[in-house]
């Protein structure tokens, strides 16, 4: 499975571009731009599980 199976590569790139500078990450804006806000809770959990490589229940900087 690839993250682009559930989110558009263009939307991901746009969301990441918005928070490139230090202290500019806004979770709600990121969720809107990336397309996560349009997903069901179970879809968001699937994305989280995909990103959580070590299955710790947390997303480390390296996993993002």
The total of beta strands comes to 0
Structural class: mainly alpha
Note the main sheet.
Answer: none
Helicity, as a percent range: 40-55%
Please report which band the strand proportion falls in: under 5%, 5-15%, 15-25%, 25-35%, 35-45% or over 45%. Answer: under 5%
Which outline best applies? Answer: globular
GO cellular component, one term: cytoplasm
InterPro entries: EF-hand-dom_pair, EF_Hand_1_Ca_BS, EF_hand_dom, Parvalbumin
Keywords: Calcium, Metal-binding, Repeat
Function: In muscle, parvalbumin is thought to be involved in relaxation after contraction. It binds two calcium ions.
Report on the structure:
This protein is mostly helical and 64 residues long. The protein has helices spanning 9-18, 27-34, 41-51. It is built from three helices and no strands. The chain is globular and about 30 Å long. The mean pLDDT is 91.
What tags apply to this protein structure?
64 residues; 45% helix; mainly alpha; globular
